[in-house]
Amino acid sequence: MIVVTGATGQLGSQIVERLLDRLPPDAVGVSVRDVDRAAGLAERGVRVRAADFTDPATLGHAFEGADKVLVVSAAIRGSGAIAANHAAIDAARDAGANRILYTSHQAASRDSLFAAQPTHAATEEHLAGLGVAFTALRNGFYASTLSFSIGTALETGQLVAPADGPVSWTAHADLAEAAAVALTEDGVLDGVTAPLTASEMLDLENVVPHERVSTRRDIAGKRSASTETST
Ligand SMILES: NC(=O)c1ccc[n+]([C@@H]2O[C@H](COP(=O)([O-])OP(=O)(O)OC[C@H]3O[C@@H](n4cnc5c(N)ncnc54)[C@H](OP(=O)(O)O)[C@@H]3O)[C@@H](O)[C@H]2O)c1
């Protein structure tokens, strides 16, 4: 059985769908915090069990009988994130999984100033030290988070952002497909993967025109955009 955590989240839910394209439902299990939110999966024959990374005693039951466990990094900020990820990974090992997978990040680094990245780096190191086959999926920056960077530009016509560089903004759907391949095709993605990203890199000035806003340079370090009338 393959068990996926975070299956009521945006990425985890898409990964489960891509697994169900490939496997019978009784070969798939999910670990979720709220089983009611996964009732649809249970009706389809997926094993649904409750667990919370911050309550490690719950994890053994959720991972019981798993050959592979995919730990989707929990949406936990701050100092508890590393302990939570480690608890999930350790529980997967204790359950006897012969491969443990983890959704890391393309920018995982102990030295990063972006708070999530030292967490991913520490989790990768923990995973690599377990002595179990592993895959750290170095997922690209989510394209869905672009809305935070763009802010209200589409309404105001003004895009103001600090100096930025090109980013290979990546769709959840593509990352879900990659995770499903890693879970079902042995050896294709082993260890710390190459960055799993979109093939094109765009900075905000390239992204915003796709949303029918034209851009122009403003003062140094800032950029502004004015909305074009869409036809
Ligand atoms: N690559 C990137 O650019 C990027 C950007 C943002 C985040 N991320 C990481 O990618 C992960 C998945 O992204 P997403 O878009 O699927 O986010 P999401 O929809 O917010 O899903 C996060 C998942 O974490 C689960 N979770 C939160 N606290 C937990 C806990 N204590 N124990 C177990 N599970 C817990 C949530 O469970 P519930 O469904 O019960 O709430 C949810 O399923 C995020 O959690 C974050 O670590 C990556």
Automatic annotation (TrEMBL):
InterPro entries: NAD(P)-bd_dom, NAD(P)-bd_dom_sf, NmrA-type_oxidoreductase
Domain NAD(P)-binding span(s) in chain numbering: 6-145
SUPFAM superfamilies associated with the record: NAD(P)-binding Rossmann-fold domains
Domain of life according to the entry: Bacteria
PANTHER family (UniProt xref): NMRA-LIKE DOMAIN-CONTAINING PROTEIN, QUINONE OXIDOREDUCTASE 2
Protein name in UniProt: NAD(P)H-binding protein
Organism name: Micromonospora trifolii
